[in-house]
Write a structure and sequence with these properties.
With 161 residues, the protein is mainly α. Among the domains are: 36 residues, no CATH class; 54 residues. It is elongated. The protein starts with 11 loop residues before the first helix and ends with a helix. The mean pLDDT is 88. One of its GO terms (biological process) is regulation of DNA repair. Its main location: cytoplasm. InterPro entries: RecX_HTH_2nd, RecX_HTH_3rd, Regulatory_RecX, WH-like_DNA-bd_sf.
């Protein structure tokens, strides 16, 4: 096995595609994938959760955008749903009900990031700031309920002068 395939985490689909591009026989590819899975070196569920958590914490991507990226990487739907649920709904709020499909800790993290964006746009009119925040949140994959809740909280905590 070439070292290039072990330099980063892969989904089963990505590894299969990479090995096919290197012209390995199909039975060899299947054997390598089965071997890696049995040894815990290849796990789409773990990959999906790590990817989701990374994109959420470093890029503030929302569930919809993360799901889209994982689907493009060939992660099965069940693994994608489970991973995003763990990252956005479970959080550190054991026993608390998720609001808008997000835990309280996730909403707090999102609000902190959105507040930075809101402050950067303080020279704009209120309508322009709102429109900018809607675009920022929607682009990152948050639904309208989350977007609306964040904007209302921003306006309440940072009223116009």
């Amino acid at each position: 096995m070439p070292r290039c395939c072990l330099s980063r985490a892969f989904t089963v689909s990505e590894l299969r595609k990479k090995l096919r591009s290197k012209k390995y026989p199909f039975d060899t590819i299947d054997a390598v994938i089965a071997n890696f899975k049995s040894r815990g070196l290849l796990n789409d569920g773990f990959y999906a959760e790590s990817f989701s958590r990374s994109r959420w914490l470093t890029s503030t991507w929302g569930p919809r955008r993360i799901k889209q990226a994982l689907h493009q990487k060939g992660v099965p739907e069940a693994e994608v749903d489970q991973a995003t649920r763990r990252v956005f709904q479970d959080g550190d709020d054991y026993g608390k009900e998720a609001t808008f499909g997000m835990s309280e800790a996730s909403m707090d993290h999102l609000f902190a990031q959105a507040s930075k964006q809101w402050q950067r746009a303080q020279s704009l009119t209120l309508e322009s700031r709102r429109a900018r925040m809607v675009r920022w949140l929607q682009y990152r994959g948050f639904n309208w309920a989350v977007t609306n809740a964040v904007i209302r909280k921003l306006e309440a905590q940072h009223p116009p002068p």
